[in-house]
Amino acid sequence: MAQLITGIHHVTAIAAGAQENIDFYAGILGLRLVKKTVNFDASGVYHFYYGDQLGNPGSILTFFPYAGLTGGRHGKGMLNTTTFSVASSSMNYWLARLKQFSVEYKQPVERFEGELVVYFEDPDGLGLELVFNDRDDRPGFSYGHIPGEHALKGLYNAEIWEEGYERTAGLLSEQLDHQLIAEKGNRFRFAAKNSPGNYVDILCTPDSLKGLAGSGTVHHIAFATPDAKAQLEVRERVLKRMLNPTPVLDRNYFTSIYFREPGGVLFEVATSGPGFSVDEDPGHLGEELKLPLQFEPDRPGIEAQLIPVKLDFEQFR
Fold it and tell me: What is the pTM for the complete model shown?
């Protein structure tokens, strides 16, 4: 049977401040802002996409910044930690950089063999980790204020907290082409492809409180599928599991379906193309506000609602 899911496509989270979000992710962390657009379901809200040079699947973290939004709460039924892959030789650089910009972090710990993990949070409290490893041959992206050898290479894994792992594990393995590849204590690691950027860790945390949505929390995780045909086949699989997927929705840079997994986390299945170069030159991604065609007639009104933002890296050198 053909593999319909090839790994993680992106993770989407919620923030409170637009400029603060850009300063942290493109400034301090050095990710590329590959697309500046709006929430296709709420045009008065930005949608920022960060990733590697082209925004390849497995590198993308996106945000909806809602000005003044109340903070959420990490807990079960939620994706609580999103991680980035970094070369092992870059640990001292990144610990010094986090300290330089007053980002508090936990001391490095080994998770699985060959992984040293440093936990920290963004200004809204979103759970993040740097995973230092020698298994990732993806090139990192740097605007130049972070040396290329230390640049983040993309996502490493996503961490979901659940009451119990069995039902979510069943969905991942039976409908979404994942396999259990490692476990340690209450952590169960699944992957559609055994490589950094594609790991999904389920943590059994029955004693934790239920997570609450708000700034500093993850909205959904998206899994990659090659094309529209494969996406429809995945949708049929999900329908048979009676998880009520949405119709296929056009997101301009990919098409999507959405559904909630048994533990409550919103899952998306997104096509790998056409990608972020469909409306911008690859050398100038993220420089202009891009709107879907249906919003173009309302551009003046949409722009009037959005707080202007800028990329300024001098303060982050």
Answer: 0.98
